[in-house]
Hints:
The longest helix is centred in the N-terminal third of the chain and has 39 residues, at 51-89. The protein has nine helices and 14 strands. It starts with 9 loop residues before the first helix and ends in a 5-residue tail after the last strand. It is α/β, with parallel strands linked by helices. Strand 7 and strand 8 form a beta hairpin. The strands form five sheets. The chain has a five-stranded mixed β-sheet with strand order 1-10-11-9-2, covered by helices on one side. Helices cover 36% and strands 19% of the residues. The chain is globular.
Amino acid sequence: MLYNRLFTNTVCDKLYILSWFLIVPFYRALNKLISCFIVVKRDPSIDSNQPCRHHCCLLLKIPVLFLIALLTCPIALLGALMYLPLLRKRKHYAFSRKEVTFRTQPWFDIHSRRNVSLATINTCLLPEALARVNNLKHTVSRAGLIGERISRCQDMQHISIFLESPSEAELFSSATADAATNSTHVDETSNHRERTSSCHSDADSSRCNNSNPPTVASDPEEEVEPEQKPSRRTADPAKANSAFVGKTNVKTFLNNEDSFLLDVAPTESANRRSRKKLNTGDDWQVSAVIQTFPPDLDFLCCQEVFDKTAASVLRNSLHKVFEYIIYDVGSWKWRSNRMLLNSGLLFASKHPIDCVEFRYFSQSRAEDRFASKGLLMVKVIMGECDGRPLVGYVHDASTGSG
């Protein structure tokens, strides 16, 4: 079953929002205060020429944050008295839906083949103090940047690349042309050497070194252009939705900031560098480096989205392309997470969600005991065929739980 609200009662919803509003000032002040004592390695914000400037800012910031945390502590205790009991009564997840301009076409024919795209990302959006332990900072800013980049990649025009297999006649003609080119280069090199040696041997009569050397007229038709390397093909998403390429490397660059490198058919000289042989069979796997998220994603599974503010920022950014989002997933019990952190799971989908269920890992150890890590199971509606819905199942898990 899919729950649209955290509580079945509207009063509990209002009290839950009010209690968290009372806790937030103390939570943020304490988070910032602890972050001041955790230094990130190779922090570019710290100027190496002025090391005292950073320390002076910390000396001014620490007393202010300590004073704010001290003043807001009684208010936070009052909010915690309302917040903790409500955690045990709330649902295991929060559901959000927002209309988008572009919707994915549903699946109506069960006999037709259809590909589904899914991406997973470990965001490490921890509270600021815990993020600095992992040598990261600016959790909320990183959440907005991650969401914007993913959404921007989904807004790109879809570029389809088709490969044409060469026929035997084309392969034979290409090999003949390469052989003729190589023989032409060999003939020209040998003729040039013969002319040079004859010029030096007859130095008394012709004086080649002191006079103008004899010019040899060359036929323009016999001139062979040097072999050029395959250039990068720049595809304009606004002008063309597909590109037809054959028998050469395919390197598509959308633009300088959001571009991806795709090696589809590497040449023989690049095989040693860009291809790896599979352990099973004689097939070859082409390796590629992708700088951005692939376009046209159907589902997005995120892990370690623990901070609530960062989760809200990420959710608002992803809502530009994903209509359905499941976030703030977890089971708040003393046994599961000591009533502290959620599971960190976030699921975004372009297809309607029919049912959601969460199961936490009951045997967590070490620091995982303070987070409700587990398995999120989602049932999505892919389309309809003969009056019956076509459904799919997607699971998002905290695989790093110990």
